[in-house]
Amino acid sequence: MQDAERLQDELRQRVVRTSAPIALPRTVTGLDVTYETGSDRAVAAAVVVDVASLAVAEVAIHRGLADFPYVPGLLAFREVPLLVAAVEKLATPPALLVCDGYGLAHPKRFGLASHLGVVLDLPSYGVAKTAFVGAFTPPAEARGSHADLTDDGEVIGSVVRTQTAVKPVFVSAGHRIGLADCISLTLRLSGRYRIPEPTRQADIESRKILREWQ
């Protein structure tokens, strides 16, 4: 664990924090991993979604073994090798990554989205269903409402209402993208559902392949 923590600290120094707006990408790649209960077998999915239509453009799957134990705060060491393997199977290199997890909204300010973004040197951010660290005041009930997620006086993310009167999601920048763009993209990518389409589809695909594998 000490080696992982040391590497985490080294990689964290390479995170590019920015507030400068980015050009709207044509596609976004959503990422998720599903694990077999009681086993180290896992399926990672990388799903490319067209930003304009929210249609799935490509799916890449990697089946493998998670060779790092589950440790809170070090989840990236369990998932990044699987996710990188899936991303490398895509026919077209991704323009931007969105993860089911955290970026700066992490005790070390280096969650899965940050770790993966640094490793692949791609803009990346995280959208999580629950908060890991930080405090917030719930945003208003209307779709598009959002509130700061803060920790030790620092804004580490945003609590975003993607659907009216539905639980918010927790958005945080990972690497080479600002929080404002993360919020805007999350809303643009959330059509009829609470979860943005890229990670929603990655969850669907990884679960489907795991069922077939079993």
Automatic annotation (TrEMBL):
One of its GO terms (cellular component) is cytoplasm. Its main location: cytoplasm. GO terms for molecular function: deoxyribonuclease V activity; magnesium ion binding; RNA endonuclease activity producing 5'-phosphomonoesters, hydrolytic mechanism; single-stranded RNA binding. Its EC number is 3.1.21.7. DNA repair enzyme involved in the repair of deaminated bases. Selectively cleaves double-stranded DNA at the second phosphodiester bond 3' to a deoxyinosine leaving behind the intact lesion on the nicked DNA. Belongs to the endonuclease V family. This is Endonuclease V. It comes from Paractinoplanes abujensis.
